[in-house]
From TrEMBL:
It comes from Thermanaerothrix daxensis. GO terms for cellular component: ATP-binding cassette (ABC) transporter complex, substrate-binding subunit-containing. InterPro entries: SBP (IPR006059). This is ABC transporter substrate-binding protein. One of its GO terms (molecular function) is maltose binding. Pfam families: SBP_bac_1. The lineage of its organism: Bacteria, Bacillati, Chloroflexota, Anaerolineae, Anaerolineales. Residues 26-42 have a biased composition (Low complexity).
């Protein structure tokens, strides 16, 4: 019995050793988490879809007319240089980015950023995305691509903070453009107005003749009109003072500007609230209205419609703003934590390149951000814009993100919406004073 017990014990020991030898291989110790990379070094390895192809998702609000055509032209350059990277066009429709930026904000809040997105140079970029730690600096890219030598000195401070550059400008747009129908003006013996009083007189003549004097669209186009009237009434120095605290929003001069704006609204089409900027612009080139105030992306739209400059449409600075270029600049950023950072860097290289900007801007209806683009590629209007950009006094746009952060702009927009409904200039001015105290430099 004792011998049997020893035998059984030996077999048990052998069985235990065999199990140990045939078991699963022990796993290695868990990898230690790596330290997060510096935001200024966008060198994370690219994420790839299951098929192994690299991707880049680019978010914008360019979905129609010359805007979409310009974007497609730049995408074509991208695909030619980076055929192995799948381009995902995540554009969302909506004038001036109203809808798109709401979608983008939701995605960023949910931790689901696109790789790169369209953002206006100025306070929209610095006061929103930089302040929210949502984008990465691009100094290394600027150095490697030599962009500091070809980008205007005017732009770099508007896309920088604390010595870090945060976006790649692709264009320059002019906001203070008065578009008009040459045939309507000729038929009514009207010269292109250069002052606000001349403009009022011209529109009185048109109104008496049964012609719609001014084409307007949804609310953001009214804000666009407002900023040009502020500029035309106050002049560039006092206009700039609105945004740096040197001009009193409650001053009599600002009240005159708001009264001018209120009077202009009386000449507009009654269905403006239901029209897009394209709809309003088309009223002019179709001969259904005489004037429209819109940025020069409208010119790209007119050419997409097959319209002829100086025949179907003409242009001039908004009355009172001659010699001043009210600008904005579209740019693209690199998301913090971009899902496909290598693809994003490739896209940004194209956005900042001469080839990319020369493909994009003549179609979009804008001029290059770069100073070395071939002027001969651009049409009559854009060549005139190039000359004015180089010689005029430059001020920034409110509607398009240059002069006010999102919070301040939102408060102005709310006040404007109430004013459009009630027409109370005093209440409007008081609300603008309060907005400056709340979110601007008047604290």
């Amino acid at each position: 019995m004792k011998r049997l017990s020893l035998t059984l014990l030996g077999l048990l020991m052998i069985f235990t050793i065999v199990l140990s030898a045939c078991g699963t291989t022990p796993t290695s110790a868990p990898a230690q988490p790596t330290a997060p990379q510096e935001a200024s070094q966008p060198t994370n390895p690219p994420s790839q879809p299951s098929g192994g192809k690299q991707q880049v998702e680019v978010f914008s609000w360019w979905t129609g007319g010359g805007e979409a055509a310009g974007l497609e032209a730049m995408i074509k350059v991208f695909k030619a240089q980076y055929p192995d990277i799948e381009f995902i066009n995540a554009a969302v429709a909506g004038g001036a980015g109203t809808n798109a930026r709401a979608v983008l904000a939701s995605r960023l809040q949910a931790g689901d950023p696109p790789d790169s997105w369209q953002g206006h140079a100025g306070q929209e970029l610095i006061g929103t995305y930089v302040a929210g730690n949502q984008i990465q600096p691009l100094n290394d890219l600027y150095e490697s691509e030599g962009w500091l030598e070809v980008m205007p000195e005017t732009l770099i401070p508007l896309i920088s903070q604390d010595g870090k550059i945060y976006s790649v400008p692709v264009n320059i747009h002019r906001a203070n453009v008065l578009w008009y129908n040459p045939k309507i003006l000729k038929e009514n013996n009207i010269n292109v107005p250069t002052t606000i009083d001349e403009w009022f007189a011209a529109m009185d003549t048109l109104k008496a003749a049964g012609v719609t004097p001014l084409a307007l669209g949804e609310q953001w186009t009214k804000m666009h009109l407002l900023e040009t009237v502020l500029l035309g009434t106050l002049g560039p120095d006092a206009y700039n003072g609105l945004w740096n605290g040197k001009t009193d929003w409650g001053s009599p001069e600002v009240k005159v500007a708001l009264q001018n704006f209120a009077k202009l609204l009386t000449y507009a089409n009654s269905d403006s609230a239901s029209l897009s900027w394209q709809d309003a612009s088309q009223l002019v080139v179709n001969g259904d209205a005489a004037f429209n105030v819109m940025g020069d992306w409208a010119e790209g739209y007119f050419r997409e419609l097959g319209k002829t400059p100086q025949v179907d449409y003409g242009w001039a600075p908004v009355p009172g703003t001659a010699g001043t270029f009210q600008f904005l600049s579209d740019s693209f950023v690199l998301a913090a934590g971009a899902p496909h950072p290598d693809g994003a860097i490739a896209w940004l290289k194209i956005a900042g390149s001469k080839a990319g900007q020369e493909a994009f801007n003549p179609v979009k209806g804008s001029i290059c951000a770069r100073i070395d683009c071939d002027k001969s590629l651009f049409g009559e209007y854009l060549q005139s814009a190039m000359n004015d950009w180089a010689t005029n006094t430059v001020v920034g746009s409110l509607t398009h993100g240059v002069v006010a952060n999102d919070s301040w702009k939102s408060e102005i927009d709310t006040a404007l919406g109430l004013f459009v409904q009630n027409g109370d200039v005093d209440a409007f001015q008081a609300a603008l004073v309060a907005a400056c105290k709340s979110s601007g430099p008047c604290k």
